[in-house]
Amino acid sequence: MHLSSTTTLHNGVKIPWLGLGVYKVEDGSEIVSTVKSALELGYRSIDTAALYDNEEGVGQAIHESGIKREDIFVTTKVWNSDQGYENTLKAFDESLKKLGLDYVDLYLIHWPVPGKYKDTWKALEEIYTQGKARAIGVSNFMTHHLEDVLKDAKVKPMVNQVEFHPKLYQKELLDYCRSNNIQLEAWSPLARGRYLDDPILTEIATKYNKSVAQVMIRWDYQHGIVTIPKSTKKHRQKENADIFDFELTFEDMEKINNLNEDFRTGKHPDEFDYGV
After folding, report:
1. 110 annotated as a binding-site residue
2. Which site among 10, 102, 132, 258 is 20 to 30 Å from 92 CA-CA?
3. Which residues bind substrate (predicted)?
4. Residue 273: which pLDDT band, with cuts at 50, 70 and 90?
């Protein structure tokens, strides 16, 4: 296994196990250099969103990288204020334009806006049917949201991207997604750096001669979760990617599972202020 290793979504599209998240990376020179350095290291998956306001820079970096478009997996997302059928179609076209691309590899509903996410999903199905997105999915959906979408969906979501790390081990959601062949993807896999000095994680990291960050990302990987750690620094991007040359034992995986505190660095999807 290596940095460009992939897993296959239920529609046959391959997604890299490891990608680069770019939340809060400023558009312009910072995003361009961040994406370029990741691509130089061998990353082949970039995860952005309309909300991040850096799609233009992501597109620029991809164009300037010299890497073939079909070799890079690009994800973006529709923001809450653009949800609903017609608005989502417009928002998607705007994202494509900013990225300077003919298609994206994965398009996600960013949050389950009450009363809107099902119409938004219909728009994603339309985008998918037209071949403008190779795969479609959701983000921050709990099991009840997924069940609601699946009642009427013509196309089943391929991905659910949620906050997931050792202090937020969402086992029931992971099991549900696995049993429904929906790929779980982790945002904030390092819990925004809050637990890099956790004694149990530190002890495990020392045992494998790895960093705590590498142990946390490897833990995701061994749970079969696609992971998109964010870093603007090349040496950190390199470190985050260096997780394929060791394997956590069953006992160590259990120790990390048991660190769960249902702690979120972001909002709970049922408590998010949707303004509706």
Report:
1. yes
2. 10
3. 110
4. confident
